[in-house]
What does this fold into?
Amino acid sequence: MTEFDIKVFESLRNLGVDFSAKDLRLGAAVSGGADSVCLLLSLCSLSREYGFKIFVVNVNHNLRASEETDGDSAFVKALCDKLSGNGVDVEFIGKVIPRGKLESIAVERGGGIEDAARAERYKIFESEIEANFLDFLCLAHNQNDVLETALMRFLQGSFTETYAIAARRGKFLRPLLGISRAEIEEYLRVSGQSWCTDSTNADDSYLRNNIRLNLLPLLDAKFPGWKSGVLSGLGKSAMDGELIELAVEKAFKETQMHNDSVLIPLSLLKGISSAVKVRLLYKACNQICGEQRIPFAFIKDVCRALEGGSFARKVYKNIEICCKNDHIIVKKSVKNQTDFTFSVIIEEDGKYEFEFGSLELKSALDGKVLLFLNENLLASNLTLPVLVRSAILTDEVECKDGTMKKLLDVFSDWHVPESERGHIPVVQELSSKNQRICCILGSILGFDNWIVR
It folds into this structure.
């Protein structure tokens, strides 16, 4: 075994794998990329030493051209056949998700394609663990994935204690988390083993790819030692997260489930810290409507209304939060798409409440109007009156170079699911030439804002 294989061995043993056990059955999720191919080769090296069987699970998501996705699966199968011929007990399990299914799941879940793909992939993994009596299924996330995820979540405004990728979750193991991508590629080069490259990895319109292709090289060049700093910070945040999670779980026991709703006593919310309060509201929302991305601005708006003593009904997509009989009630909100169409003209300074949050307009000394979204300054060059309304996909907005771009293309670039596009408001300047759109408020759903300067 190489030094690399010993690292993987020690990691697996620390995660609970007993290599002395009879009939040990380990699974490996292998896509054909460098990380998963490296994982498979290292497991095969350990298998030669300890004699366990390896079950390779390959999932064809059918999100790229058929020749590419089918080619990746064929590559993995051929590699398994080759390894089997070299004395390793390897079984290939190929699963294909029908083309178009993930798009439908994304609409149902109210999330993106990547979220749908992950959910469906893990359903397949769990099914294969059960069907093949696997002791564990190994995943190929590595140290670079940890760093990219930390930066991605930070840029999206997520909680700091949720950055870490768990090394073990039930029967899922990630033995490569302490190994860098550079070590992985070196291992493959020394082994003379090729791998597949996903063509979408070069598309930096995806946030993770943008971080990998643009931000990480900059940090490596300008900030030596940043990786160890981030990893150390993640460890500290994880410890803080354990304490906060215990407090949230304790508070949640004092809530009530009733008719597909969660009832939270107002007295409970007044007696806990802001950190626990926010996470308790998130937990209640997820309890009712499943795991989905909920903008922090929405939860913050609820907390602000509670603190101000003027709570009103708040709605985000299929979640409704209201106040009744000394309780905050979190429940499902059933709406038709037409319910999200709105149009409001604002003619003077002031603070205006919408279901997506608050907009405030303040006149500056130069006669221009400042626009704030949930107390954050967005634009400083508006002229009243403005129209706040639902986006129409045929709308056009001005780019930096003066050209015009359709909102449909903007939302496509941001990877906004079709089911969410009607929820994003725009601000239109009625006194300007052609009544230009001056703002697209994507941040209410966790996307970018488009501000015309």
Observations:
- The mean pLDDT is 88.
- The two ends are 60 Å apart (CA to CA).
- Residues 226-252 form the longest helix (27 residues).
